[in-house]
Amino acid sequence: MSSNPFEAAVILDGIRRWVEIESPTDRPDQVNKLANLVASGYRDLSASVECVAGRDGYGDHLVTRSSWGQGVPGILVLSHLDTVHPMGFIERLPFKVEGNRAFGPGIYDMKGGAYLAYHAFRQICTDDVRPPLGITQLYVSDEEIGSPTSRALIEAEGRKAKYVLVTEPARDGGKIVTGRKGVARFEVFVKGTPAHAGARPEDGCSAIRELGNVIQTLEAMNDLKRGVTVNVGVVRGGTKPNVIAEEAYAEVDMRVPTMADADELAPKILGITSRTPGVGVKVIGGLNRPPYEKSNAGAALYEHARSLAAELGFRLFDVFSGGGSDGNFTAPHTATLDGLGVDGKGAHTHYEQLYISSIEPRARLLYRLYQTLQ
Catalytic center at which residues (predicted)? Predict the structure, then answer.
């Protein structure tokens, strides 16, 4: 048996067991099956496990707490157990190893990183000396759809913590994340008047035509230099080609780097009105995840992680990401470091993979963060 407690092959076998339990967000039975396996891994550790019952058709959340250090603000580790891949996807993308790559649904986003955090905690529990701070690990079941049932729990735990570590996958060759765009979602409802498109078009008011005007207004808000993106990703409308459309609908995604951008643009989107007499426009929605802006505390946490990585023999760089995570919910009030999971590529794709060479250094980095944060 190897004397290395961070041997990649051993850790990868644990990741495999988590990957081989498929856990789409919309299958709470499968998410809970994985949660039960995760919980079982803490039974012989110096930790308590609380299961927060799922609701609204989603799975349970797990909160594990170290037996030490719970009386003062400590370390919160955020992970999610759900994946975007539908049931049966593992037949298309079975767990397999090819050279330095291991494949499987959710292996990169983010079962690999979640397992690293668990393994590092397990090693901490075997040490003779307890670290300065308590460690709470939160595994949620609905991150891939915006964390609707876990957000309140994440925010509550985040406010109690001194540091938040997020095990989302690394970026661009191992970079960690120190900032993310905020995410807003909107729905657009357009109501016109139907008529025969050939015989009496003058009697109608096209909802689709007006939706076209709305789309132009939304597209004009894009500003890549500022990092603002507004995307109309779903459009529906009308009934028949020979009928002036009575109704039209769109779904909109907005990404903004700062709260100032959100405060400026969200009201503009919600305030869009019809340019066409006789047609009504209603927009609902708002900010789903606040921007994760790099704070002074977050920057200091990154510098500490970078110094630990140097001690471990690798260089650590940070990056700003356009995608959101549960770290967006904690960063506004607690020092947060994201992208601490495995390196790899292909999140949400049919070739999702982690790089096996990243397993040991990333696990050791989490372990050292647990040991040294105070």
Answer: 82, 143 (proton acceptor)
